[in-house]
Design goal:
This is Membrane protein. InterPro entries: SHOCT. This protein has 93 residues and is mainly α. Helix content is 61%, strand content 0%. It contains three helices and no strands. α2 runs antiparallel to α3. The longest helix has 32 residues. The protein is rod-shaped.
Length: 93
Protein backbone atom coordinates (compact mmCIF):
# COMPACT_ATOMS: atom_id res chain seq x y z
CA UNK A 1 0.00 0.00 0.00
CA UNK A 2 2.53 2.60 1.06
CA UNK A 3 5.46 1.14 -0.87
CA UNK A 4 9.07 1.85 -0.20
CA UNK A 5 10.31 5.31 -1.17
CA UNK A 6 13.31 3.82 -2.98
CA UNK A 7 11.45 1.14 -4.90
CA UNK A 8 11.22 -2.57 -4.24
CA UNK A 9 14.69 -2.87 -2.68
CA UNK A 10 16.29 -4.84 -5.54
CA UNK A 11 17.14 -1.90 -7.76
CA UNK A 12 18.74 0.19 -5.04
CA UNK A 13 21.54 2.75 -5.43
CA UNK A 14 20.46 4.27 -8.69
CA UNK A 15 19.79 0.95 -10.40
CA UNK A 16 23.22 -0.60 -9.81
CA UNK A 17 21.87 -3.37 -7.64
CA UNK A 18 23.90 -5.45 -5.24
CA UNK A 19 26.42 -6.51 -7.88
CA UNK A 20 27.15 -2.92 -8.81
CA UNK A 21 27.47 -1.95 -5.17
CA UNK A 22 29.93 -4.80 -4.59
CA UNK A 23 32.00 -3.80 -7.62
CA UNK A 24 32.06 -0.16 -6.52
CA UNK A 25 33.29 -1.20 -3.06
CA UNK A 26 36.01 -3.42 -4.52
CA UNK A 27 37.09 -0.63 -6.85
CA UNK A 28 37.32 1.76 -3.90
CA UNK A 29 39.47 -0.73 -1.96
CA UNK A 30 41.73 -1.20 -4.99
CA UNK A 31 42.23 2.54 -5.34
CA UNK A 32 43.07 2.86 -1.62
CA UNK A 33 45.60 -0.01 -1.90
CA UNK A 34 47.28 1.55 -4.96
CA UNK A 35 47.55 4.93 -3.23
CA UNK A 36 49.01 3.31 -0.07
CA UNK A 37 51.60 1.30 -2.02
CA UNK A 38 52.54 4.38 -4.03
CA UNK A 39 52.97 6.46 -0.89
CA UNK A 40 55.23 3.85 0.72
CA UNK A 41 57.30 3.61 -2.48
CA UNK A 42 57.72 7.40 -2.68
CA UNK A 43 58.68 7.68 1.00
CA UNK A 44 61.29 4.94 0.65
CA UNK A 45 62.80 6.61 -2.41
CA UNK A 46 63.03 9.92 -0.55
CA UNK A 47 64.67 8.27 2.47
CA UNK A 48 67.34 6.78 0.19
CA UNK A 49 67.72 10.01 -1.72
CA UNK A 50 66.77 8.06 -4.83
CA UNK A 51 70.30 6.66 -5.11
CA UNK A 52 71.85 3.53 -3.65
CA UNK A 53 74.45 4.23 -0.98
CA UNK A 54 78.09 3.37 -1.79
CA UNK A 55 78.91 -0.10 -0.52
CA UNK A 56 75.23 -0.73 0.19
CA UNK A 57 74.64 -4.26 1.40
CA UNK A 58 72.84 -6.39 -1.14
CA UNK A 59 70.90 -9.58 -0.60
CA UNK A 60 73.06 -12.20 1.04
CA UNK A 61 74.88 -9.67 3.25
CA UNK A 62 77.63 -8.88 0.71
CA UNK A 63 78.36 -5.26 -0.22
CA UNK A 64 79.03 -4.15 -3.78
CA UNK A 65 82.73 -3.71 -3.00
CA UNK A 66 83.01 -7.18 -1.49
CA UNK A 67 81.23 -8.69 -4.47
CA UNK A 68 83.71 -7.06 -6.86
CA UNK A 69 86.63 -8.18 -4.70
CA UNK A 70 85.32 -11.76 -4.69
CA UNK A 71 84.94 -11.68 -8.49
CA UNK A 72 88.50 -10.37 -8.95
CA UNK A 73 89.89 -13.11 -6.71
CA UNK A 74 87.84 -15.77 -8.52
CA UNK A 75 89.16 -14.58 -11.91
CA UNK A 76 92.73 -14.67 -10.62
CA UNK A 77 93.27 -10.91 -10.95
CA UNK A 78 94.62 -10.77 -7.37
CA UNK A 79 96.34 -13.35 -5.19
CA UNK A 80 95.12 -14.62 -1.84
CA UNK A 81 97.33 -12.28 0.18
CA UNK A 82 95.99 -9.21 -1.65
CA UNK A 83 92.43 -10.56 -1.37
CA UNK A 84 92.71 -11.02 2.42
CA UNK A 85 94.31 -7.58 2.89
CA UNK A 86 91.59 -5.79 0.94
CA UNK A 87 88.81 -7.84 2.53
CA UNK A 88 90.07 -6.89 6.00
CA UNK A 89 90.07 -3.22 5.01
CA UNK A 90 86.49 -3.45 3.67
CA UNK A 91 85.23 -5.16 6.81
CA UNK A 92 86.67 -2.38 8.99
CA UNK A 93 84.51 0.25 7.26
Amino acid sequence: MWGEPWGNGWGMHGGMGWGGLLLAGLLALLIIAVVAVGAVWILRRRADGGQPRPGQVEHGGVSDAERVLNERFARGDIDEEEYQRRRTILQQK
